[in-house]
Amino acid sequence: MKRLWAPWRLEFIKSKGDTCIFCSSPREGDDRKSRIFARRKYVFGMLNAFPYNPGHILIAPYRHVTEMTSISSEEWRESLQLLKESTAAIKGVMEPHGFNIGFNVGAAAGGGFEHLHMHVVPRWRGDSNFMPVLAETKVLPEHLDSTYKRIVDALKEGHAKKGS
Question: 59 phi and psi, to 5 degrees?
């Protein structure tokens, strides 16, 4: 029998409860702890705590909405603007070859939280290596705190303007 110890998953399982991370994290006021890298009037961006790849970010409105049809025009515009700035920043410091960008709407679609949010996953040629295929294990080469710092610094330094 194979065993893969992943003690950080317990934190995720316990944190799920009744609390919506997209509602509670912005209210906590500790952006570094919550890994919120950008705040706008209607939306914010945060790192995915359990990323598929380094630089996997989430963009969500502050308002708790569950359906695409419920998002306001202002929330949609700001989400797309933050998407543009964030991908430019990630390109500037992480040099991905592409991105997967999308939404999981509802539990049946794989949405871990019913709060509408956009996933932005940087991709590199060859980022799917033998580990997921043979060992059903994903290796992440960078710590979340390092990724957070690089994205925040890139946004502050204006890397986002390169892709504008």
Answer: -120, 130
Name 129's Cβ contacts closer than 8 Å, sequence gap at least 6. 139
CATH at 59:
3.30.428.10
Structural domain of 156: 35-161
**This prediction's pTM:** 0.76
Catalytic-role residue among 115, 117, 119, 159: 117
What is the b/e burial string over 126-158, where b = at least 16 CB atoms within 10 angstroms of the residue's CB? ebeeeeeeeeeeeeeeeebeebbebbbebbeee
Instruction: Give the gyration radius of the chain's Cα atoms.
Output: 16
Residue 26 lies in a domain: no
Active site residue 115: no
**Count of domains forming the chain:** 1
Taking only the tens place, the pLDDT of each residue in 12-62 is: 556 556 688 999 999 998 999 999 999 999 999 999 988 888 999 999 999
